[in-house]
Design goal:
The chain contains two helices and 17 strands. It is α+β, with helices and mostly antiparallel strands. Strand 6 and strand 7 form a beta hairpin. The radius of gyration is 30 Å and the shape is globular. The protein starts with a helix and ends with a helix.
Length: 277
């Protein structure tokens, strides 16, 4: 038989062990909670992985609008606001806008221009960062820094697609989708068959075609469009019809009447400022 003293001592020891267990459990819980907080805090302190999918509206003259991804409403695109993958941006009459993107240094929109930012530095299956911007209508000016080998940058129109490695260019898309590309620095690869991976780029020919006037059509027939892939170099331009046919191509000059427009002069001034930063 155990004496009362021994029983009391045994109860005290058991109680102490239980109490110690509760204290240790509480401390472990606090440590785990703190670890979770530290991990969360660490994530908050780290750069947002989504930040590379964003750009910024850096300048607006007049009115510019942005349609966020998966939205049917257009909101004001004011200076300092962000743009992300999937957004559309447009300028209204007598308005201009400038966007700053990470690799695509500067993209400017002339009045009555709409672009669709389909992809902005989105990772592909090959591990590359892919950017795809489509010009639906209007006139854009792009000043692009060197594009890394691990990235792809494409600017498309309804009738052609371009691959850019670093350049200064202008793309104009008319209401009927006909397109003009002018390259001021660097070079741009352009094709009317961007899905055809077997085409090899060729040097741009000096070409001028007369667009025939209206004529009577004998009847419907299957027309196979000729696919082409050209390299447009510094101070060269290419003009593409609504049917994806090259209408003219070759050299252009800063003395051309089109190069005296307020739009071109404004961009050259903006580029000069950017170059001094």
């Amino acid at each position: 038989m155990l004496s009362k003293l021994k029983i009391t001592t045994l109860i005290s020891v058991i109680f102490a062990l239980i109490l110690a267990g509760l204290v240790i459990g509480s401390q472990l819980g606090d440590d785990a909670s703190k670890a979770r907080q530290d991990t969360s805090s660490g994530r908050q302190g780290m750069p947002d992985v989504k930040i590379k999918h964003r750009g910024e509206v850096t300048h607006v003259d007049g009115n510019a609008k942005r349609q966020p991804s998966q939205s049917e409403e257009w909101v004001n695109a004011i200076q300092g606001s962000e743009v992300t993958s999937g957004d559309k941006v447009r300028t209204l009459r007598d308005s201009r806008a400038e966007l700053a993107l990470t690799n695509l240094n500067v993209l400017r929109l002339a009045p009555m221009t709409t672009i669709d930012i389909k992809k902005l530095y989105e990772e592909t299956k090959e591990g590359k960062d892919e950017t795809q911007i489509d010009v639906e209508q209007g006139d854009i000016w792009a000043m692009v820094g060197e594009v890394k080998e691990t990235s792809t940058l494409n600017i498309g129109t309804p009738v052609a697609g371009t691959a850019i490695t670093g350049t200064r260019l202008r793309i104009s898309v008319e209401d009927d989708s006909s397109t003009m590309l002018k390259v001021y620095e660097g070079e741009v690869k352009i094709t009317n068959a961007p899905d055809n991976k077997n085409l090899l780029p060729k040097d741009l020919p000096k070409l001028h075609k007369q667009i025939p006037g209206p004529k009577q059509i004998k009847g419907p027939r299957q027309v196979t469009m000729e696919e082409w892939y050209y390299i447009v170099k510094k101070m060269q331009s290419i003009q593409i019809s609504k049917d994806g046919e090259v209408v003219s191509s070759g050299d252009f000059s800063t003395k051309d009447q089109d190069e005296q427009s307020d739009w071109v002069k404004w961009n050259l001034e903006r580029d000069s400022v950017e170059g001094k930063k």
